[in-house]
Amino acid sequence: MKYNLFLAIAMASLVHIAPTQAAEIVGEVTAVVNKATCTLVAKEDATGSTILGTGAGAVGGAVLGRLVGGKKGTGWGAALGAVGGGLVGNNMADETYACKAVVMADGKSQLIETTSEKKLKQGDTITLIKTDDGKLSVM
Hints:
Layout: H1 2-15, E1 25-43, H2 49-69, H3 74-90, E2 95-105, E3 108-116, E4 125-131, E5 136-138
Antiparallel strand pairs: 1-2, 1-4, 2-3, 4-5
């Protein structure tokens, strides 16, 4: 009996949950970043694309290093190419930053908080999306 009552209350509470509606876009504006502080919040894990990028970069770098080094000193050229290629491949991993920025838009300075795939820096031009709930989002 207690179980049935609990189940009935749980089912009744589900009926009153209203779906969330998305905010309507009312405009967009180009803005220039005056100042920004960004923190890395996510980077592709070491078991995924980072290892693949590092490996591919190292192999490509070794091949190019061997070509540049010629027959004499091919070991050094390949080794330096592999290290350089590996570093470049590792830096190509996907990153996500949480940023707070002061931007100039519509002739006014505004503070925004956003997530971005790149660090925002002074002088960057970004697109702000205005929604009917008054929020600004970076596109």
